[in-house]
Protein 1
Amino acid sequence: MVKLTSLVKTSGCAAKLPPAQLHEVLGSLPLVHDEHLVGGFENSDDALVYRLDNGTLVIQTVDFFPPMVDDPYTFGQVAAANALSDIYAMGSEPKIAMNLMCFPSCLELEVMHQILLGGLDKANEAGAVIAGGHTISDPTPKYGLCVTGFAKEGEVWANKGAQEGDLLVLTKSLGVGIINTAVKASMASEEAASAAIKSMVTLNKYARDEALGYTVHAATDITGFSLLGHSQEMAVASDVQLVIESEKVPILPFVEEYSIQGLNPGGLYNNRDYIGGSVDMVASIRQSLQDVLYDPQTSGGLLFSMPGKDAKAYSEKTGFPIIGYVKAKGEKPILVV
């Protein structure tokens, strides 16, 4: 059977368009003004929010990418978990979804079956219904979902709203981009590869569900633009400075070792080039740790900005670490210490 990763140049969320190019295009587009549109891309939120006439809020997102693993079923799981994550980052639950599939003619149809089955199983775990989609022939396989959730007024989280004095909680370890690069180079250990897969197929549903019992001032998920990239978006949207305590950031096994060996994805350097000017990095932080903070994540965790009491209680209950805090607006949006 053809290895899926042999058909791609970049994998997972590392395949995203460089952020500088994306923002150049988005910044040139006119903003859409609609009285029912609660939130769009102007604040870099994870999904759009649209208010229906009866007051119901519709939350919608779309995400797809090329494979980062060779097993088609696992690829389907990861891609679905990643797409579903945007809805969880908004504090909602995914309810309906549609498949997006690009499929090469050189692959057996059983490969497509396994990819779709992996996505279906993750959607079932999330309590969402997949009903239909769209498929085209393409030399590079790609898969993902268009996902919709629903909420009531006041129930939706946004990446805008972090407040001075908040603590920052991260719900997954970093490093899947670097590990996936090591896997593609046949240099990753079985332990590292397994840890990355386990992280990527884990739904953010459970972190979101537990967080509903606490106050969340701002939230986002950590994907292709890295921890620092998505933190920068939260800081700018909230008009504050986020302080990341680098030694408290959870990291998957062997990640720094692989980074030192040069097994960094191209997206890591794209992120640094774009975000670096917005980050005040303490000079003593080792290069490999800096690399991890810029690493593009696939199906990464949620980042919460919560009042101190709530963050500590949530962290104690779930085991998710507190990795920093929020200060008044500083010279740069992000300070890494």
Protein 2
Amino acid sequence: MICIITGDIVGSRKIKDSWLLSLKTALKTVSGQNGKWEIYRGDSFQVEVDAEDAIKTAAYIKACIRINKPADVRMGIGIGEVKTKRKKLSESSGDVFVNSGAAFDSLKQAKVNLAIKTENPDFDEEINVLIKLSLIAMDSWGVVAAEMVKLALENENVVQSELAIISKRTQSSVSEALKRARYSEIMEMDKLYRKKLNQILSQ
């Protein structure tokens, strides 16, 4: 089981392309050693990550893009198997690509910026409700909140006092930004997603 995230930048033609460097850096970071990502049609992208990292990866990409206000990102998360692996992601095939495309295509109709699709409709329904709730916070991240979420996800084992030193901010401003971003609640959602995913994978 792997995860393919298909996404695009919202209103990219109307904003400066400072988001492009942020997107490239984010995709390089989240794809890690596998390096499976590509940008196509100027503002669309796909990236392959471990299935259990789907929510955290989406939050990280979102934070990287939201730093470039007013840029935002739409993403469809697909979980499934790969049938044919090719060098380019866009030329590979399998359930995971179908699911990712279907999740992405559902965004406009559902009027949301993030959704997930697997082979398990009950799981999808449950996780998509959590995602919708998390988007209340994520869609309103300002630049500082997005910066702090990005930094916190890059330094997960670091306490807030150390994040303050890295970001050259006071500890209280770091704490306030993460609270405003609902960072701890999003991490709780990530934890629950991993637990539910492991349950369906072990069936």
Protein 3
Amino acid sequence: MRAVVFEEFGVLPEVRRVPDPEPSPDGVVIRVEATGLCRSDWHGWLGHDPDITLPHVPGHELSGVVEAVGTGVRDWRSGDAVTVPFVCACGRCRDCAAGNGQVCANQTQPGFTGWGSFAEFVAIDNADVNLVAVPEGMTFATAASLGCRFATAFRAVVHQGAVRGGEWVAVHGCGGVGLSAVMIAAACGARVVAVDISAAALELARQFGATACVDAAEGTAERVMDITDGGAHLSLDALGSATTCAASINGLRRGGRHVQVGLLPKDPPLPMARVIGWELRLLGSHGMAAAAYPPMMDMVADGRLRPDRLITGTIGLDEAPRALAEMAGPGITIIEPG
């Protein structure tokens, strides 16, 4: 098969022919129809992820058609249209039994713990607990856009953040995750304040339902407090920096909820006096298990959520190495390997 491969961190990958994957007994091989280009792939290419071993094929947001099926797979057949969460659970541990596959201690991640989807084919283990059917009428590009950023934002806003209609929600960082969070919170009836330093990102946030936008370069927590008349009920750091994390916490009202979604390069100092005195709640959010997809898929199917609007461009596999290295702009770029 053809795949994007890098043998050194930070060195431009190449498209080359490599052996086709084989399914494990409990896994499948998927013919990749669409895969998203994500900043996490960029971090992996730079060597920021300890799970990656070289040579490596990146890519973790994918959709496609089941090509081959392991002997132990019960629920899937060749020809099924599927997508997968970027955190693939084992299905056997205590967390998986409790429905929390997104924090499975034995998790695998395509494009990180193994070769990913910047390729014509990708192998996925534990298929019966990790595959999600792509419904009729949903494009492969839309399905691929769900796999990391959109599903991650959905869990952060709906499950961990427990958003309610009429609440103020602040979203710090309007990249793929942040813009997804803006759209999801607005669809749930919340009033959203989008925060970023990019005018283009803030314009997209307005289009996706933000009530107000704040240029982070002009002050953040104070502006959010003013706009929301005392602070957001729910705030997300969708970027992952000491500055955005602190701004998210400091922009909450008393009793508010902070959800950390963006990965931080190192643990930051936090305004814990505010957390204690105002009885704030700090939560983490890490992907979303396949079993939790149905409510999100229902909202996509009935048009309340439009992840396809996040897609800003489509490229072929030969263009992927340069796009990975440059990694610029808000929205989602889709790679079509075929």
